[in-house]
Design brief:
By secondary structure, the chain is mostly beta strands. It is elongated, with a radius of gyration of 18 Å. The strands form 2 sheets. Strands 3, 4, 5, 6, 7, 9, 10, 11 and 12 form a 9-stranded antiparallel beta sheet that branches. It has one domain.
């Protein structure tokens, strides 16, 4: 897996694309890369910055007109077919543009918080797409087959961590987002 730098925006925004690959893959390598992704968030907002004395409240990103990822979309399992040693998104071989993206639009001004995406990707040789995986063409997986039900897969070659933690403070600070990855 190739991991380029994370691009950040103020108030929790980030974009991180990675390129999946299989070490030692050959023309006879077939199967699926399946990634299990969990989202954890702790986000606060100062709802009335112009009115002194109002509380800072916990808010849900991706809800009520707020940017960010919604915890209601997770957990998910996403699948990338591997055919002839190459990783695909749909019918297209993944390229330098990336095959998997973690991204969040800015949550909003006067917010502070942490967004954690915890991913575990594993390669399952000679596995075909299990029932229940579908392409939804919507967040969070877009054109990648996904399910929200644990497919109970066994026999992978070993899980690879794929984690991102973004933090920002637009209440007491300038809202700059910092991101760490594994």
């Amino acid at each position: 897996m190739t991991r380029p730098a994370v691009k950040t925006q103020a108030n929790g925004g980030f974009h991180w694309g990675v390129e999946w690959s299989i070490d030692g893959a050959s023309g006879s390598t077939y199967g699926l890369i399946v990634q299990h992704v969990v989202l954890r968030q702790n986000v606060k907002a100062w709802l009335s910055p112009l009115e002194p004395g109002h509380d800072i409240l916990t808010v849900e990103p991706g809800q009520n007109g707020r940017g960010g990822l919604s915890t209601s979309w997770y957990p998910i399992w996403e699948a990338w077919p591997v055919r002839g040693g190459m990783v695909f998104v749909g019918e297209h071989v993944t390229g330098s543009a990336g095959s998997d993206f973690y991204g969040q639009t800015p949550v909003g001004e006067n917010t502070k918080g942490t967004t954690e995406l915890i991913g575990r990707a594993d390669f399952f040789p000679n596995l075909t797409l299990p029932a229940g995986f579908t392409v939804r063409n919507t967040a969070p997986a877009w054109s990648v087959p996904m399910t929200t039900t644990d497919p109970g897969l066994t026999g992978g070659t070993g899980a690879l961590d794929h984690d991102l933690t973004a933090t920002w403070d637009g209440i007491n600070g300038d809202g700059a987002t910092t991101a760490t990855t594994v």
